[in-house]
Amino acid sequence: MMKRSLTIAVKIWLSLSILVLGYLILVILSFHLEKSMKTRLRDVSEALIPAAKQSELAYAAFNEQIRLYNDAVMMGEESLIGSAQNYAERTRTALQIIINLEELNPQQKEMIREVLVQVTAFTVSAQEVYVKLSSAFADTEDITPETTEQLDPALQDRAIQLGQQTEEIQERLRSFVDQFANNLKTELDSINIMARRYGKMNLLISIIIVISALTLIAIIIKHSIIHPVSRIVDIAESIRAGKEEIEWLPESGDEIGVLNTSLRTMTENLQAEIKERKRAELSLLQTEKKYQMIFENSLEGIFQIRTDGRLLNANPALAAIIKYDSPQELLSTVTNFMEQVYVNREDLHSFERVLHDEGKVIRFETQICCKDRAIIWASISARTVLDPNGKLLYYEGSLIDITERKQAEALQHAYKANLEREVKERTQELSLALEHLKATQRELIQSEKMAALGQLIAGVAHEINTPLGAIRASMGHISSVLQETLYHLPALLQRLTPEQQQTFLMLIQQALQGKKNLTSREERKLRRDLRQELETHQIANAEMFADTLVDMGIYEDITPFITLFQDGHSTEILRAAYNLTSQQHHSQNIMMAVERASKVVFALKNYAHYDHSDEMTRTNITEGIDIVLTLYHNQLKHGIEVIKYYDPVPAIQCYPDELNQVWTNLVHNAVQAMNGEGQLEIAVFQKENQVVVRMTDSGCGVPEEIRERIFEPFFTTKIAGEGSGLGLDIVKKIVEKHAGKIELESQPGRTTFSVFLPITAAAIHSQNT
Fold first, then answer.
1. pLDDT higher for 470 or 550?
2. Which of 30, 131, 315, 543 is deepest in the core (most CB within 10 A)?
3. pLDDT tens digit string along 229-250?
4. Coil/strand/helix, residue 701
5. Distance between CA atoms of 23 and 206, rounded to whole angstroms?
6. DSSP state of 750
7. Domains of the chain (ranges plus CATH)?
8. Whole-angstrom distance, CA of residue 284 vs CA of residue 279
9. Which residue(s) pair with 395 in the sheet?
10. Looking at residue 342, what DSSP letter applies?
């Protein structure tokens, strides 16, 4: 009873438990064997492998050390000896690592320690000898036996001894490499043999355990599964034969009992299903009659075609579409539907390829040939019909006459092509008109720029003439003073003693060091103090001397020059020194004037420049604003205070010439609004992904009733002749061209124009597109 209540899984589990128990025994045995092998491998990895590796490193490093010594002697490069010391240190380090290995036997350690001492002593001696050899051959291009014989005999002897030591050390290091390599190979071979022996033992035990377990499982399966399954097969044969009386297995709790119960239930259900299927077959016959009616009366052509192209079936609509009198005539006349009906062979191949790859074709449009040779357009849908094994039986599908639709589409296509041609012509006309408009706009901006430049030209001329006048005056003074000095200076120097000449040069050098900026009060006090000091030393013309010395910047300590001032020609000496040192002051004036004129010319050149390429460039906004302010300097300097707040902002993609026109118009309007007196604030800063330029003037402001109109073309509040009314309109168009915007805030005494410009060119291209 217990045997019948156990499930098959439990019975198999009991047999597998025996297999697992045997496997555990095998694992325990393998663990002890593996532990023994790991111990030996650990000894190899901690002793023999590091020893073999370090011995090879020591041998290679020592050979590299000897090579560098020889190269140092051959090339006369003492720096190579220093590199050789690094390899000597690597040799000693490798040997010391071997000595520190705990698993190495004492005898081997002692032999390696001896070599380490020998290498250390050799390196010390070699350092000295090879340095001397390198110095001896430093200027020798080719070392020959004759040049070697010229060396100091003692040095030759030491070199020979080093060579012998080199060979001895190399031999001992080579022996260590071979010894450790052989020991490592022997130990690894031994471990490999032991591993193979253990592997064969484990395999034998595994086979015994597996065979025993499989035998037990086979016995359990035979009694628990095979015998009951044979009974189930007999029951199935009885069911297939249609027997009504069947001897079922007794009920049990294992899987076979469940299968027996399921089979019994399935048999009862199958008998009920057979009755239901008979009723379904009757219903199917009725459905087929309905389908046949649809097939016969459908407006679409319906067909079935064999794989060889022969029609199996066709409805009256298909025969009518391709001009046959009846389906029977179509079936008897057309031997290969695809080959005889299709007009375009490429369409036929495409249709067959899609049908083969995907198993169906939906609304494939092509031209077909009718019985009377007329060509019509048809839309064909088809699919493959397969048997239960996936073998192709035939094709079935439908065909619709779409000739009228295709004719309508052709007419529509012709109309569309004509319409597209007309649209293209109109587009070209509009493009030409747009290009003409852009050219007109560019000319208008350039004309506005030239008009503004014409208003500024008088101030620009003054800004250039002022530094030119300063240059002319300074050059005239330099010419006259230089002529006078060159005439009198040689005779004056001949009258001075060498000490006085030295003092004279000191006076000039101190004057050339630069003059501090003094107030009038400070200058008067210095002149008074110098005059008193000079009078103390009984120097004639003390007041004139004090004035000249202050002008020269010499007033802190004049004691070294007192003897020079007491000379009978002191007036001539001081005048000569003043004339020579004043040239520096006049040269500086010329330099400042040249820089000022250059700045104005540069601003004028950049402002008047017109870029015909119409390409955007990356430009710093503040540079363009400063150019405009330079041109307006003459109008601003008399009564308008310019305050600039420039934050660090990135350069932006823009049209620099057009933006300069924006700043010109805004500054010009601000100057006119303030009547030449007031305060102009210019702020430049970054706000998110935009650069903002904000210009604020202290003028009268813009009345509220006209604020909405100030950007209209030709709108102006000035009297006739003073303005065209296009300035702010041009400003707005340029800003919008840059995908930016301009805003106005105004009240009496404070008017602000804010210009927002994108940093990147993407927004500008999008706007212009």
1. 550
2. 315
3. 777 777 777 777 766 667 777 7
4. coil
5. 7
6. E
7. 31-211 (1.20.120.1730), 298-401 (3.30.450.20), 616-768 (3.30.565.10)
8. 9
9. 305, 384
10. B
